[in-house]
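Morning run. Coffee first, then this:
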Amino acid sequence: MVSLAGLSGPGRILAASAQVDELDESHVKLRVPSQSLVPAVIDSIRGAMTKLMGRHFQVEVVVGDVQDETILEREDRERAEEKARLIARFKSLHVVQELERRLGDLEIKDVRED
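And here it is:
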């Protein structure tokens, strides 16, 4: 949601540190750990989501303990899972397997899909 909505600055920071309690086509309920919310920040999230969805989007923010994965944590986990998938696919190539057979286990830190 954060990356898709094109948020930046304080809006991105707030959304990234939030837990999504509810989400549908026209509403999101975010749980944040702090009351230091500026209405303009919430308005920026609302504006970005409205633009993304193509219609009015309601943003509700509640303050409370964030117990589940935050948006940023979820994005980091998904990015790491995708990276691991790409590395596994790369290592399954015959030429890579042959290199590993001859040279030993290759430490591959990153792979691009192109």
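Strands lie at 19-24, 27-32, 58-63. Good start to the day.
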